[in-house]
Design goal:
The structure holds two protein chains of two kinds.
Chain A (H helix, E strand, L loop, with lengths): L2 H4 L7 H6 L2 H17 L9 H25 L7 H26 L2 H12 L1 H16 L1
Helix pairs in contact in A: 4-5, 6-7
Chain B lengths: L1 H33 L9 H28 L3 H55 L2 H22 L14 E3 L9 E2 L1 H10 L4 E3 L5 E6 L3 E5 L4 E5 L2 E3 L5 E3 L6 E2 L1 E4 L5
Antiparallel strand pairs in B: 1-10, 2-9, 3-10, 4-7, 5-6, 6-8
Classes of the chains: A mainly alpha, B alpha+beta.
Chain lengths: 137, 258
């Protein structure tokens, strides 16, 4: 068995799960999913959250790159590679870190709604279409 | 009534959550023990989930689409009904995946590799001791030829209004449909018509008017010409053919349109 599952937080017997209250179950599932989404090792379950973490990391990477580009413009052209080369990796690392941290600290309820929107993606698409129809009118 | 319904919905989602957690445990154990880490963004589970969701979307959409069509609902109502149908489809997909997950895992982790190993072993034995490397391609080629011949032997229907004229004639069956012959059969058919008759050579003949395109044998050589819809102005598309191929046959009389 994986060492992670031997940790104090899991796995729990079915009886214990059934005795949990609705809120306890909700937060317990969220913690399991979050651990899976944050880890580079446990990405074996279909989880929309993993996609969100990836997209968030990419967005923050792009944002940091843009910020760096603005800064780099202010220095002489000959010295730019000194900043852009390490800056790229710095932006990549910072972007991934910020994306992961944002997802971790955004709260269980927000994560639940985002995961649900992705899991029920056909419904989300219908809602987007309905909203588009409403705004068109 | 509303309270009971609310309780039932809550119980349903609670049970689903418990099943999800239990499934989550079981997913982690065999994945690391048997097949190592599967740290990929697009996992087998994600792909399965997507495929099953698509199938369930189609299944659930059928009755709802019929309902919306029958009552001629406006777009907004259609969207609401669609959303309900989509929600039910996702629920159905979740239920199906929970039920078949173990079977899918067993299939991918054990049965498919086992089948692949058996197939490889059988192939090695067949090639080494039963000369499969020549027998199998020959059988395949024979099967392909048989299928091709069976398909080409079928008469062509609704291609022409008129199948013969004063100095031209198509090979037809009793029902007046164009029959497809091999090159040798086509030559024999034309020579049977009498002295001066032979295969079409490619000149214009507006009297022949096709409704749909088809191929006819041409002389000389084994090639076929496409007869396009409308009056036959002379072919522009040709296809090389073998002795086993079958095409429609147009015979023309020398001194006529040939």
């Amino acid at each position: 068995m994986n060492s992670w599952l031997k940790s104090p937080e899991g796995p729990l017997p079915e009886k214990v799960l059934r005795e949990m209250s609705a809120d306890e179950l909700f937060f317990y599932e969220d913690s399991l999913l979050l651990k899976n989404e944050m880890s580079t090792e446990f990405r074996i379950r279909a989880s929309g959250g993993r996609l969100v973490v990836f997209v968030l990391s990419a967005v923050f990477f792009a944002a940091y790159m843009m910020a760096m580009a603005i800064f780099v413009k202010s220095i002489p052209e000959q010295q730019r590679p000194l900043f852009t080369f390490p800056g790229f990796f710095l932006a990549l690392g910072l972007g991934a870190f910020t994306g992961h941290m944002l997802w971790k600290h955004i709260g269980a309820n927000a994560r639940f709604w985002v995961r649900s929107a992705l899991h029920y993606w056909p419904v989300t698409l219908y809602l987007v279409a309905a909203a588009a129809l409403l705004f068109k009118k | 009534m509303t309270v009971v319904l609310d309780q039932r919905i809550r119980a349903y989602f609670r049970e689903k959550r418990i099943q999800r957690i239990l499934s989550f445990y079981s997913r982690l154990q065999p994945a690391t023990r048997l097949t190592g880490k599967r740290a990929s963004m697009v996992s087998r589970d994600s792909v399965m989930q997507l495929i099953v969701t698509f199938i369930c979307l189609v299944v659930c959409a059928i009755p709802f689409a019929a309902l919306v069509k029958s009552i001629k609902a406006p777009a907004a109502v259609g969207l609401c009904v669609g959303a309900v149908s989509a929600f039910l489809a996702v629920e159905l997909a979740d239920w199906v995946l929970l039920k078949v997950r173990r079977a899918v895992d067993l299939t991918f982790d054990f049965i498919l590799p086992l089948l692949a190993a058996v197939l490889i072993a059988v192939t090695v034995v067949g090639v080494k001791y039963f000369n499969w490397s020549t027998v199998v391609p020959q059988r395949f080629e024979k099967w392909r030829t048989d299928v091709n011949e069976r398909l080409q032997k079928r008469p062509l229907t609704d291609r022409l209004r008129q199948t013969s004229g004063a100095d031209w004639v198509f090979a037809t069956n009793e029902a007046g449909q164009l029959t497809q012959l091999t090159f040798a059969e086509a030559e024999a058919f034309c020579s049977k018509l009498g002295a001066g008759w032979g295969l079409y050579t490619g000149t214009a003949h507006p009297e022949i008017s096709a409704e749909r395109p088809f191929y006819i044998w041409m002389a000389p050589g084994m090639r076929a010409a496409q007869v396009d819809p409308g009056p036959l102005k002379g072919p522009q598309v040709f296809v090389s053919s073998s002795a086993q191929d079958r095409h429609a046959t147009l015979c023309v009389r020398r001194g006529g349109v040939r």
